[in-house]
Amino acid sequence: MKILVLDTIHGGAEIAGALEEAGHTVDAVDVYRGETGIPAAVAAGRSYDLVVAPVHLDPDHPLLGRAPERVTHHEAVRRLLLSCRPELMVEVTGARGKTTTATALAHLLGGPGVLHTSMGTFVFPERRRLWRRSITPASVLPAAKEAVACGGWLIAEESLGVSGVGDLAVLTSGDDYPCAAGKKRALAEKVRSLAAAPRVLVPTGVNVPGAIAADAVAVVEGTRCTYRYGDAKGSFENPLLALRGYRTALHLAAAAACLLGRDPAGLADFAPLPGRMAVSREEGRLTVDCANSGACREVAVDAAAYARALGGAAPLVLVIGTEGQTICEGFPAAEVRAAVAAIAPDRTVVVGDYDADDLPAGAVTAADLEDGIHRAEQMSYGGTIVLAVKTWR
Hints:
ATP binding, Protein-Tyrosine Phosphatase, Chain A, about 25% strand, Mur-like_cat_sf, single chain, six-stranded mixed sheet, UDP-N-acetylmuramoyl-L-alanine:D-glutamate ligase, 23 strands, alpha/beta
C-alpha cells in the first residue's frame, strides 16, 4: 500500500517508520515546518492509497485529498497494534487529569507493566524510567513494544483521543476547546475515537453514548470512596479525595480497577504527584506545585485554596500562565485574569507570551517556569507560593 503520513513533528515520523517496517511504501511530510520528510509540493503530485493525518490538522489541508482513504494518527496506531498489543491495555485521554488517573491505576496494577505518561514512560514494578516523550498517539507504539517484551500491562496517556485497541478507554474530563485551525472541537474528536474501544469509562456528569459512568461503580463522599462492582466491594479513604484535582482522577482509577477485576483499596496510600498539588517546605516557605499540562483556572483556584488551608494567613505569591505553547488547549489570557481575580494573591508572576494589556494589574512577567519560581522566591520569605503554570513536566 502507498501511504502518505502527515505531520512528522507530532509523531508522524514514528508512524511512517512503523508502516514501512510493516511492508508499506510510505512518504512523510512535515506540514508545519517543512524540515523533514519530502516537500509538500512533491507529495501533492503523487497519488496514495491512504493518508494518515493527526486530529489537530486543518481539515482543509490540500494533502488530505491525495488518497481515497483517510485515517487519523490514532487509527493508524490501532492498525499497527492489533496484531501485537499488550495482554492488558488501558488508554487514558482528556483535557486534564490524565497523568494522575493513569498513575493511580498503575499504582493498583503493580507489575510487570509499563506506564506511559507526560511525566515519562516507566517500567513497573521497579518504576524505572525508560524515557520521556510526547503523548502523541505514535508514542504508544514503543511503550506497547516494551509492555509486550516484559509480558505485562500497558497504561497509556494519549492526547486528543485513543486508538481504541486497548481493553478499556478512560476519558478524564468533559472540558472542550477548539482544535484543527478552529474547525473542530476536541471533545467531539475524543468521543469519536472512544467509539472504537470495547469499554469506555467517563467521569460523573459526562455523557458519552455507551460509556460507563464512574459513579455507577464507585461513589466519593468527602475523603472516602466506596465501590461495588462484581466481586469488588469495599471502600478506602485518602485525604486527596478532598481536592478537586485528585477527586475525579482517584474516582476514575478506582472504577477502572473494578472494571478490570482489581480491588482499588490500595489507593488509600496514593500520594500526590510532582506538579499536581505536591507540597514542599523550604526556608520557612510553603510551595504548592500545580505546574503541569492540565493547569487551568479551576486548578489554580483549588491550589490556592489548598495553600491557604496549609499556610494560613501567610502572603501568597501566584505563579501562573503558559510555558509550553505547544500544549493544545493553552491557558488563555482571560482565564489567567479570571483565576487571579478569584484567588486575589498578594503578588502575581505571569509566565508566557501574553500581551501587556492582557496581564493582571500589578503582575510581574517571567520567561519560563524556572524564572517564575525564582522571582516568586525573591518575593516570598516565610510566605506561600502557588505554581499554576501550564507546562510539560
